[in-house]
Specification:
about 180 residues, Hypothetical protein af1432, 2 domains, 10 helices
Length: about 180
């Protein structure tokens, strides 16, 4: 079994602790589709690092939803990769992918981290998480759909040529969210 296959198995086992386990498993499948697209466009990227980034970037959600899952995920992944005796230099790259995937306090610096951040955001547009967020927002949740959509679309700037290809999808989600928010339902 490859290290990437082990990471996927580890993720699936750990994420089952989350009440959103089905969502995260769907998210991984969507990321795997995006990985294949990016692999063709950027064959120089280290596929193993990208796959480990895919399978471990949201591992922080396995122990809760309140903390910054990128920070928590970095800690969990580091422990797991060390237990697996994974290469130290590659571990640093995987951990950078995890920590930088939100383009928040750490920005992606290596190609593999840029790919993870991009496909995470792109997958949100193609997986369609925004309507669920908008629904929860109406129920009083603090997490808001339009700002999330805006952050995801911003992060597509890591690959500008691909961002433009996603413009219509972004516009459609924005309009749908705005219309839904006006409804008294």
């Amino acid at each position: 079994m490859t290290i990437a296959e082990k990471a996927k198995e580890f993720f699936n086992k750990e994420i089952d602790k989350s009440r959103f386990a089905d969502h995260f498993k769907d998210h991984i499948r969507e990321l795997e589709k995006w990985e294949m697209i990016m692999e063709k466009k950027y064959p120089e990227a280290d596929k193993e690092i990208v796959l480990l980034g895919i399978y471990l970037h949201d591992i922080g959600f396995s122990i809760g939803e309140d903390d910054d899952h990128a920070v928590t995920g970095e800690i969990i992944a580091k422990e797991w990769l060390e237990k697996e005796k994974y290469d130290t230099n590659k571990t640093k790259e995987v951990l950078h992918c995890i920590r930088a995937h939100r383009c928040k306090d750490v920005m992606p610096e290596i190609l593999e981290a840029k790919i993870i951040a991009f496909i995470d955001s792109a997958s949100h547009l193609t997986q369609g998480i925004y309507f669920g967020i908008a629904r929860k927002e109406k129920e009083g949740a603090k997490y808001e759909a339009l700002p999330k959509l805006e952050r995801d679309y911003r992060d597509l700037s890591l690959f500008p040529e691909m961002k433009e290809d996603m413009r219509e999808l972004y516009d459609a989600w924005k309009k749908l969210i705005e219309v839904y928010q006006k409804m008294d339902i």
